[in-house]
## 1
Amino acid sequence: MLRPVIVVLMLVSFTCGENPAVQVTLTNKGLQYGKHVGAGWIQDRLDLVTLPDISGTVLHYIHYTLSGVNITKCDFPEPSVEFYQDIAGFNTSSSGLSVAVTGRWTTHAGLIHDGGSFDMAIFNMDVTSVVKLGKDADGHLSVTSAHCEARVGNVDVRFQGGASWMFKPFVEHLKGRIKDKIEASICPVVEKSIVNVEYHLQAMNVSFDVGENFTFDFPLTGMPVIHASSLNLGLKGEFYNIKGHTEPPFEAQPFTVPEQPGYMLSVGLSEFTLNSASYVLYKAGLLQTVITDSMIPPYLHMHLNTSWMGPYIPQLPKMFPGLLMSLQVYARKVPMFSFQPGVVKLGFEGAVKAFAIQPNGTETPLFKLNVDSTHSGKVWIAGGRLKGSVTLDNLTVTLVSSEVGTFQTDTLEHSMKAGMILVFAKLNVELGKGIGLPGTKHAQLVNTVLGMEEGFIAISSDAMLL
């Protein structure tokens, strides 16, 4: 009966007192799907279950043991699972469970030993378990047993072989003893299963490395929140440099993911997560590159040399005739993403330092430009694939310093805009092809929709276990 709870916890395990940058919501639809899958899993594996031995005494000196108890038939009605607001957890119950089992019986009284087989039917078992959710100091999701109650309606047992006739006068007495022992053993088994789930949850990572230099941190930021029809988990969702755990100069802002009861799961991703990645890249000095002539795509029909730059800077080819050039491009500030309804905005404040490459390989500085641009992007899901597009909103080029004398940047700015538009056109072809939605070997997302909201992206989906 506990398996539905395990399935549900694994579905949401796809978080300290701070605003979460990632929110995960499990709806009642997802809870009921987890229950259904868990019930099927139990039904398929019941024939592999060996029940605990049952032992006792008859007439104070005849000791008996029922062992090797295997299930031969089971009537397993689908259990009930619901969110339980009072203790922030789940209330699970299974009613009317009936089981037929077979096994071996042995007795001994002093030096006298005997044995045989038995058949037993257990009727109308009812089990109720309340599981409380919480979080530990490290931000792991935790589960504990808050309540368990078990009742067995009736037991029928028949003994065969050996001196089984001697049991017949005591069958009614044995039925009561066996019924009591079964009732007493159910909740410890349930609670052991909950402890096992807790062990696996504590072993789950709340961060993972991204490449060699970065880590993504996603512990719980607060206690799980249970509503009548949903469970919400808030996760930190922040990127760090592995070499140093430095907080960015901005904070995650509160946001609320719209309820989507028609889907099993909803995930809200704040712009803070992307901006924390941008901050880490900037602080690590990775938002810079050197561009040479060999790197220019052929479709741009341009070259990076002093002759080609002549129309923009007339004095350049005269001062440095026939030389190749290199451009050092870097971000002056942290590029910041802004999520707005239907669109993603990105502001990039960059700089370009130009050099002439002398025949002996040395580089001579030529000029420095500030290049500031704003971009818009769209993201959507179609055909089970995540797709996107990006456009250039604006670009300005300003001369900061020059070793070759002053020059106007208007024509250069126009050419750079045209070049970026060509690059984005090529990029959008690839973005339009999309990438497959994330999944595991055990589950995949289906019927997935995506919406851009103020400050966050909301993704709602159903899940299908494979």
## 2
Amino acid sequence: MVKSTTLADKANLNFPAGRIVGQLKRGRYAKRISKLAGVALASALQSCTTEVMKLASEAARQKKMQHRIKPRHICVAIREDEELNQLLSKVSIAGGGVVSHIHGAMEGKKKTKTVKGVKKVKKDKPAKEKKPAKEKKAGKSTKPKKGQKMLE
């Protein structure tokens, strides 16, 4: 008995291209749908899924959970990738939580470390130069100091 080859097998895909063709036909997106449309859509879905799962497995590895990818890891992976975040910006993942982000203005000042009595300060920004003192304009009177008379 010979096993029949499917569209997904011919295209070397894991996603079912034949089922996607059927769904495209049932959706009435066009009068005629070719089999290659299903293969193309299946390959696009497979590549996106592979990318998300690869990023999620890296996020799980960072959290020392090498054996299990949780919804939280998928959410973190999507939000950290610029293109996937733009594509899935309106999507909420159940059990994913929110990605933590602290705005720079909200962070406290960096602490200084002392090494053998000498303070080392971490530099955030280059020091600002002091502005020269403004010169007093002629013609304006100032209050006289004690013991001085005011000139007119």
## 3
Amino acid sequence: TDTGSQKDRMVAEEEWLRKWETGNIWFHKERGHPLLQKYLDVLLNGRSGLRIFFPLCGKAVEMKWLADMGHSVVGVEVSEKALKEYFVEHSLPFCEEPIPEISGAKKLQTTSGNIALYCCSIYDLSSSIVGKFDGVWDRGALVAVNPCDRQRYVSLMITLMEKNSSYLLVTVSYDPNKHKGPPFYVPESEIKSLFG
């Protein structure tokens, strides 16, 4: 369960913005994640018309896939460039509006209303702003969060979840002494401790 030299590693918001600006987005996947397809039934649990949250969503193609199934998708991403590219790449007309509760933040939403993406720090969100969710698809958020912020991140996620919600989490396993992250190594014991 040793996280090696990663424990004190910090990635500033500016570094993530720079990755999007320069196109250094090795973490973005052009195709839907096979684990979401494999475990979709676990996420949906026989339910339809769910509200599904994508933390640190980037341009995740799975957002449109789930929206096309009739679910409402909400994401949060610090890079406005990523969000605008997402709508353009999927030919989705959208509008944008400021989020009064968060200075400088905005919400970009499809004109049909089924995909709403918040451009701000995830830590600025609360259930009073975005509501609560029936499901969460975390394909790269927990492993991107600075190790010192994991408890804060998970505490926020828990406040955004409905009582019977499903949380699908994808992590990576490797020797943290050989890679500084992100993605960061999060041992299973820590995941159990964080989520309870």
## 4
Amino acid sequence: MAFRKFLPLFDRVLVERLTAETVTKGGIMLPEKSQGKVLQATVMAVGPGSVNQKGDLQPVSVKVGEKVLLPEYGGTKVILDDKDYFLFRDGDILGKYME
């Protein structure tokens, strides 16, 4: 469990992108180049939050385990235990999926 060893600072969020679909609903295998970029991810770790102008701590708006919608571009790639994770600021996350 790589995210147990890594704690993001400030308002950063560590996410793991979901895997791209390799087979269509009709059963056709998709090559890598035609697979779309996956914009959904699972939150693996969150920082404590950021400090506003008054000096108060503003907590991060997502929690570990939630599914979120990411922007198409951005984030910092982090490799932990041979797995790819991405760091995003809390404000860069577009939304979260409610169950």
